[in-house]
Amino acid sequence: MIRGLVGEPSLTADGRLLYFVHVLSDAEGNYDSDVWYCERPAP
What beta strand segments (E) does the chain contain? Predict the structure, then answer.
């Protein structure tokens, strides 16, 4: 089984991008992580 945590949200200065960290771990204690982002469309 793989479990995950998401955290450390951060906005860019213009407020258009939100970055966060996704940390995964498996039953053997191995870890991996990714940086994800989402973009707010221009008004």
Answer: 2-11, 17-26, 31-39
Placement of tokens 């407020």 in the chain: 15
d(C-alpha 39, C-alpha 3), whole Å? 25
Residue 22 to residue 3: CA distance in whole angstroms: 10
- Tell me phi and psi for residue 29, to 5 degrees: 90, 10
Q: Are 22 and 6 in contact (CB under 8 A)?
A: yes
Contact indicator for 17, 2 with CB cutoff of 8 Å = no
Two structure tokens written together for 7: 């955290």
* pTM for this predicted structure: 0.63
What pLDDT digit, counting tens, does each position of 21-39 carry? 999 988 888 889 999 999 9
